[in-house]
Design a protein that fits this description.
- By secondary structure, this protein is α/β, with parallel strands linked by helices.
- The protein has 3 domains: 3-264, 2-enoyl-CoA Hydratase, Chain A, domain 1 (Alpha-Beta Complex), CATH 3.90.226; 300-475, NAD(P)-binding Rossmann-like Domain (Rossmann fold, 3-Layer(aba) Sandwich); 483-693, N-(1-d-carboxylethyl)-l-norvaline Dehydrogenase, domain 2 (Orthogonal Bundle), CATH 1.10.1040.50.
- It has 28 helices and 19 strands.
- The strands form 4 sheets. An 8-stranded mixed beta sheet has the order 12-11-10-13-14-15-16-17, sandwiched between helices. The protein has a 6-stranded mixed beta sheet with strand order 1-2-3-4-6-9, with helices on both faces.
- α1 (26-41) runs parallel beside α2 (77-86), α3 (102-109) crosses α4 (136-144) and α5 runs antiparallel to α9.
- It is globular.
- The chain starts with a strand and ends in a 5-residue tail after the last helix.
- It binds 1,4-dihydronicotinamide adenine dinucleotide.
- Residues 303-309, 326-328, 332, 383-386, 390, 393-394, 411-413, 434-437 line the site of 1,4-dihydronicotinamide adenine dinucleotide.
């Protein structure tokens, strides 16, 4: 059992001990129930303290039990809380560090709560598309007041205990300990002081009302509804709290249960839970044990102070790691430095960064023109021009100067990492770290594992990613890695949609309605249409057999590269990012369509969405089959964190799973009949065809 029982004189102490955060898994729940039984049976015990070992009181449900029958097995959390409430001896929660979700609900079932200062308190279930399902929506409003409780439940955000303790009339905490160190003793003393108190106070018996009544809940619904468009859970949280404020406790509990079960079945909650687990799973590499010894990374060098180099440097400076930037010319260094300064100064101006912090960060940055200055750094990341000859020169220099055991990384987005590694005599130390632009903002990091990359290098860079707060996904070596390889097919399909009758605006609107942060053409304008143009030219011979719409090339021939030239698929006013449709571009597309002898047809938004998403899914299936991605959820994480795929859809692979792979394949067969879509494009990847035939899913 992962909860322990000890007796300190007349006080029994039940300690949750289920690392890392004392998740309330079955064996922990059993441990609490068992401890209560012992305490109630022991005549020498007059009061009971519940606390948590290590780094938390309790972080809530044990995520390892998510979706398994164990999660519901008795004693479930509600039963454990009932045991506490029914206890004939006072139960005191001694809360420290973290009390979240089920952990807070457990504490709310105790008669008293003593808390250490600095403790983070939250009911974060809404972030998984759910609501607290063990009385949180009924007890927290009673303990804290309707308004603050509703804020916490709807936002899921955590708040420090001492701030909550200052709310007038709050009954959440009976005492704030002087310090975390004195919590245990103070809780014991408190337990002794209430040992004879009867009747024992219960949160469920507290009154719960909002002075404005219905009007208040109407206001809140308007506000919450406006910001939670794609998600049902926040509004349902309001319903549950309203039940707390307007009905008897048992009726409110029944309402909470009903809503919880309904939310469990929504596709939004499934998507959010998939992402939650997927993000954690992405950091685990099947053949790299979690106890692999890591290389120490205490300093970083960046080669190239351009668009990417500067952003990458900022990530490390933000994390307190010293950075040395190298360029060929002083002017380039000065330019890079000025951009970094400018970015930070904008944050200072907006009040997002304190001047002192800014000074601290800039002090971590140094520059050089000489490779010899880099020899002592632990990790070097190359972000120079995307040309294999330039990469070769750089990696030969790095091989010459870097100390043994240093990690040599490339930010290349399309080049062969194995080839880059072969320029050195230490390919085992070479890895790809593919950041996304702007590198100081985008959460995604593709970690590219070369044929010879050492396991400890993989383990180390995954830890580095965590340190700089990136979500890392491992990719094998192939053209475009996971994300850009899939986006190429998405872009090709976008072109076919224009050829067949769509305008860029129609396609973008359909995708944005689906939930994409940006449709494909606005995205092209943001990234620069010339980048794709250059890649297509470079690949022209190797992809001679691949069909493309020529519209994107025609656009580039007009110099319409996107936002940076003020004109792309759309027009842009100086300094503005609003996309204004351009009649000339529409005419250009129409002329091209006519030149190909295509009669335009009206294409539904549903068809647009399916064709673009299934283009991603089919390439994703190839990527899985080839072992470029380890698991489907890695692809989903990549698309959510790097490409603006809507989180409530859970990523392209989950979207396909939810639709049913059989249906996806059927739709692809239908699309193969379209005039511009060669049947080759819509040939289901073997893995997709197989799973569809077997009635299985990717995830
Ligand atoms: P950039 O052109 O903005 O910056 C490249 C910098 O490298 C320039 O400042 C240049 O002076 C410097 N440089 C060139 N050769 C050098 C050498 N031999 N030694 C030292 N410095 C040298 O290019 P950007 O966009 O930053 O791209 C850099 C790398 O990052 C490329 O491999 C690119 O494919 C990759 N990448 C770019 C993304 C983007 O959105 N721009 C996204 C992800 C990866």
């Amino acid at each position: 059992m992962t909860a322990h029982y000890q007796v300190h004189g007349d006080v029994a102490v039940i300690t949750l001990d289920n690392p890392p955060v004392n998740g309330l898994g079955l064996s922990t729940r059993q441990g609490i129930a068992h401890g209560m039984e012992q305490a109630l049976a022991d005549a020498a015990v007059t009061s009971i303290v519940i606390t948590g070992a290590g780094k938390a009181f309790s972080g809530g449900a044990d995520i390892r039990e998510f979706g398994s029958p164990k999660a519901m097995q008795e004693p479930n959390l509600n039963s454990v809380i009932t045991l506490l409430e029914k206890s004939t001896k006072p139960v005191v929660a001694a809360i420290h560090t973290v009390a979240m979700g089920g952990g807070l609900e457990l504490a709310l079932g105790c008669h008293y709560r003593v808390v250490a200062p600095g403790t983070s308190i939250a009911l974060p279930e809404v972030k998984l598309g759910l609501l607290p399902g063990a009385g949180g929506t009924q007890r927290l409003p009673r303990a804290l007041g309707v308004e603050p409780a509703l804020n916490m439940i709807v936002s899921g955000e955590s708040i420090k205990a001492e701030m909550l303790a200052m709310l007038p009339g709050q009954k959440l905490f009976d005492k704030v300990a002087a310090s975390p160190a004195s919590l245990a003793d103070e809780a014991l003393a408190f337990a002794r002081s209430v040992a004879a108190t009867r009747p024992l106070p219960l949160v469920r018996d507290l009154p719960c009302k909002h002075p404005l009544g219905d009007a208040y809940f109407q206001f809140v619904r308007n506000m919450v509804g406006a910001v939670s468009k794609n998600y049902p859970a926040p509004l349902q949280c309001v319903d549950a709290v309203e039940a707390a404020a307007t009905s008897r406790f048992e009726a409110g509990m029944a309402k909470e249960r009903e809503i919880f079960i309904n939310l469990m079945w929504t596709s939004e909650s499934r998507a959010l839970r998939h992402l939650f687990l997927g993000e954690r799973a992405a950091s685990k590499i099947p053949d790299v044990p979690s106890d692999t010894p890591l290389r120490a990374i205490n300093s970083v060098a960046i080669i190239g102070a351009g668009t990417m180099g500067g952003g990458i440097a900022m990530n490390f400076m933000n994390a307190g790691v010293p950075v040395k930037m190298l360029e060929m010319k002083q002017e380039a260094l000065d330019r890079g430095l000025a951009t970094i300064r400018g970015n930070y100064e904008a944050q200072v101006k907006k009040g997002k960064l304190k001047q002192a912090k800014y000074d601290e960060r800039m002090a971590l940055l140094s520059t050089t023109l000489s490779y010899d200055d880099l020899s002592g750094t632990d990790l070097v990341i190359e972000a120079v021009f995307e040309e294999i000859g330039v990469k070769e020169a750089v990696f030969k220099e790095l091989d010459r100067v870097m100390k043994p055991g240093a990690i040599l990384a490339s930010n290349t987005s399309t080049l062969d990492l194995n080839k880059i590694a072969s320029f050195t005599k230490r390919p085992q130390d070479v890895v790809g770290l593919h950041f996304f632009s702007p590198a100081n903002v985008m959460k995604l990091l593709e970690v590219v594992r070369g044929e010879k990359t050492a396991k400890d290098v993989m383990a180390t860079v995954m830890a580095v990613a965590k340190k700089i707060r990136k979500t890392a996904v491992v990719s094998g070596v192939c053209d475009g890695f996971i994300g850009n390889r899939m986006i190429e097919q998405y872009g090709r399909q976008g072109g076919f949609l224009l050829d067949e009758g769509c305008t860029p605006e129609q396609v973008d609107k359909a995708m944005e309605k689906f939930g994409m942060a940006m449709g494909p053409f606005r995205m092209g304008d943001l990234a620069g249409n010339d980048i794709g143009w250059a890649i297509r030219k470079r690949r022209a011979t190797e992809r001679a057999n691949m069909k493309y719409s020529k519209t994107a090339d025609l656009l580039c021939e007009k110099g319409r590269f996107g936002q940076k030239t003020g004109a792309g698929w759309y027009d842009y006013k100086p300094g503005k990012r609003d996309a204004i449709p351009n009649a000339e571009v529409v005419k250009m597309i129409e002329d091209y369509r006519a030149s190909q002898g295509i009669t335009p047809r009206k294409i539904s938004d549903e068809e647009i969405v399916q064709r673009l998403v299934f283009a991603l899914v089919n390439e994703g299936a190839h990527i899985l089959e080839e072992g470029i991605a380890n698991k489907a959820s890695d692809i989903d994480i990549c698309y959510i964190f790097g490409y603006g795929f809507p989180p409530h859809r859970g990523g392209p692979m989950l979207y396909a799973d939810e639709m049913g792979l059989f249906n996806v394949v059927q739709a692809m067969h239908r699309f193969a009949q379209n005039p511009r879509d060669d049947a080759e494009f819509w040939k289901p990847a073997p893995l997709l065809a197989k799973l569809a035939a077997e009635g299985k899913t990717f995830n």
